[in-house]
Amino acid sequence: MRTASATIAAALAAAAILMSCPPVDAAGTVKIGILWPLTGNAAAAGQASKAAAEVAADIVNNKHPELADLPLAATEGLPNQGGAKLELIFVDHQGNPSQAQQLATRLITQDAVHVLLGAYQSSCSFTATAVAERHGIPFMVGESAALNITGRGFKWVFRSTPIASDYAATYMRFFDDLKKEGKKIASIAVVNENTDYGTSVADSIEAAAKNNNIPVAIRIPYSASSTDVSAQVLQLKEKQPDVIIFISYTSDSILYMKTMKNLDYMPPMVIGDDTGFSDPSFIPAVADIAQGAMNRSAWDIGKPGSTTYKINEMYKAKTGRDLDDTSGRNMQGFLVLADALNRAGSTEPEKIRDALAKTDLKPEQLMMGYNGVKFDATGQNTLASTYLIQLKDKQYQLVWPEKAAATKLDWPMKGWKQ
Amino acid sequence: MLLAQVIVGGLLLGAIYALFSSGLTLIWGMMNFINFAHGEFVMLGMYVALLVVVWLGGGPATFGFAAAFALFVLGVIVYASLIRHVMRGPMLAQILSTFGLALLLRYTAFWIFSANFVSLPQVSLSGTLNVGGILMPVPQLVAGVAAIALTLGLHLLLTRTTVGSQLLAVAEDRNAAMLMGIRPDRMQALAWGLAAGSAGIAGALMAVSYPWSPSVGETFGLTAFVVVTLGGFGSVPGAMYAGLIIGLIQALSAYWLGPIYKDIVVYALFAALLWLRPQGLMGKA
Predict the structure, then answer these.
(1) Sign of the four-CA dihedral A66, A69, A74, A77
(2) Is the pLDDT score of A25 beyond 90?
(3) Which of A147, B118, B119, B199 is deepest in the core (most CB within 10 A)?
(4) Any idea what the CATH number is for the domain that residue B263 is in?
């Protein structure tokens, strides 16, 4: 017995020593540590983003002359780094901010990654970016929208995606356009999940609505793990707003749509603030009862032959699904990061940071519908923007702004009434 | 009228809480054993319902019974292959064994079903009844009524039948029961089967109106523990009242105070009740 336990102890000690040694750098690779929720409530979004990042790595690491508009697509690897390939290290924080913090530390200290990308939930990005800042490792936030992630005086954190205030401004411009067409927007309701993401976006929308003299009839914060939302739907029914904006994750957004149908309540329009409404599970679950629901998206598949169309084909070949906005924004963040890594010409953190700060990508060099990528002093992309899309049959179609629209806006929404 | 609607919604949800908690309380009452994998049984019940609907079709009666049966079998297997052995070990081993089982089941489900949320395709159960202005979604109504009926059925089985007496006899005094010719192993396997089966059918009933992924068991597991503690460990009627009360409190506090406060209200009342009555509503002191 004693020898057995001594052997186990020795084995454990050996394993501990092995694990604490930093792995040897393979020649010519640049390591990107990626933090996403690969299990847990948001796992579907995390897994979809993981597939998108793998497609992006394929585009950078291999020759893709057909995508020549995108930086690094035509060449193999990072030309300025001697053709170095990107190596992706994925970790799963399960949507838990303290896990995200620990894993960011592990990626930096044990896996010796050169840059970080993540972390889907704003609350997780918030903690993980603080670790990157402390260690002086560049962190690209591809998707999280909460305002407080940038603007903390951090030097190492960059964010390519539009943020809460951009989205709020988009909705207000949309309402303006509707009013010009003579549609009634007497009041709106804001329903938000109550972590950093939902709170931050809802705060921005409330503030913007106030500035635009649009009354917010009711604001309902709730927990995304709710198993029953009938009380909230009844409150909405009582207030009769013209538009309800949902800032929701996956299961809760599906639950809201089903509960609204069950309680026979349909407002003139619901707008989902991406996320849950863009989750791959959303359309199969509620397409037949949420016809005409709107969503925001900076992603548009585009016409056959376009760069975005080809990217979507690559993604589809891998996953069997179309690329969605959430994964698309993460993929764009990845590509921005790769572009900076190439221009840095070195894996030194300082040089990568400087290259990121000097990023200046034009709209035609992007896969997403941003006006470009250019970071301000806080690390926020000042050229980020978004479209509005509408659920028609089993697909979202671009309906706003009008100049980019693929089809006309249906107002009011049909819901389950065909 | 709106208030009546909120109350009805709360009670319908509470009825399901009652059903999936009664299995947990049964195992505790039978063998002083805490099953941390109970929420996972509910989750598996949901997936069984999905598989049956997708492969075989059929209404809620079909997939409800299929889930109950599949989970009954799983419960017996778990008892025979795991619980029977760890019962001889120290308390800590007993607690951790079901905790390990919970993780095993959850991650196996991740592996097989992926992490994506799924929901039942529109089954024959749909539509909404309007009873005097109160809207009752048919799926929830059927689920709630079935849950109460099954919980009562379980209670009657325990208190009014020979099998129930034998189960309780084993719980009371294993050795004395053996002297009376009752085989405790068989009875306890039956208890696990019933407990898992009721969790399975509760899962199938929940699946009609609620989208889920493999991690859903965590949420349900926690709720079940609160219900069982509030109702009194080992008491099936206690679990029923407690389930209904918690469903109602959640709905009312979500309506009056806002959804983010509903858990505060539930747990504050829960703590207050335990302070006054630590054995729970119907538990034996």
Answers:
(1) negative
(2) no
(3) B199
(4) 1.10.3470
